[in-house]
Amino acid sequence: MALLTILRYPDPRLHKVASPVTVFDDALRALVRDMAQTMYEAPGVGLAATQVNVHKQVIVIDVSETHDQLLVLINPRILQADGSQVCEEGCLSVPGVYEEVERAEHVVVEAENEFGGTFKLEAEELLAVCIQHEMDHLKGKVFVEYLSRLKQTRIKSRMQKEAREEDKSKAA
Ligand code: NI
């Protein structure tokens, strides 16, 4: 297993659109394991392959307190979405930023697991938010894009400044 490097907003690679997975092999399962380890280590409740610069439709999620309810969603599609909820979201690619985003309250998703089996999942509250947030990543969308232009500009310059400071301390 290996920890993967998480891309930081505003890295342009976060805006690539992921392609569907067609081969369910050991390499895919290794990616899923590495993504899960990276998410738990961060720690975070969800990670999309886009965030580790792999542009395939792969998501790992675990919203449990005990960190033992790993959910793997490959090629996820929303079959049904209704209601609305506003939730404060964060993202491993935008560390330290938490902002409210409106999402569907309840979703029904169909996806494959890492062995190619298809399953259906019904989700609400935090899990529903998380699924929608991670599915946006696969479309190249980061949650800050729901915010006002002004906020986005502020977040972008804050992230760039932090990245510069980190580079400096690495060089020192
Ligand atoms: Ni995210």
Protein architecture, described:
This protein is an alpha+beta fold and 172 residues long. The chain has a single domain, classed as Peptide deformylase (Peptide Deformylase), CATH 3.90.45. The protein contains three helices and seven strands. A five-stranded antiparallel sheet has the order 1-2-3-6-7. It has a two-stranded antiparallel ribbon with strand order 4-5. Bound molecules: nickel (II) ion. Nickel (II) ion is lined by residues 91-93, 133, 137.
Compact summary:
The protein has 172 residues and is of the alpha+beta class. It has a single domain (12-171), classed as Peptide deformylase (Peptide Deformylase, Alpha-Beta Complex).
CATH architecture: Alpha-Beta Complex
Radius of gyration: 16 Å
Distance between the termini: 30 Å
Bound molecules: nickel (II) ion
What would CATH call the class?
Alpha Beta
How many distinct folded domains?
Answer: 1
- The CATH homologous superfamily is called Peptide deformylase
Percent of residues in β-strands:
25-35%
Q: What would the CATH topology be?
A: Peptide Deformylase
Oligomeric form: single chain
Low-confidence stretches: none
Beta strand count: 7
Task: Sum up the overall morphology in one term.
Answer: globular
Order of helices and strands: HEEEEEEEHH
**Structural class assignment:** alpha+beta
Outline the biggest β-sheet. Answer: 5 strands, antiparallel
Strand order of the largest sheet: 1-2-3-6-7
Per DSSP, the total helix count is: 3
The helix fraction, in percent, is 25-40%
What is the arithmetic mean of pLDDT? 96
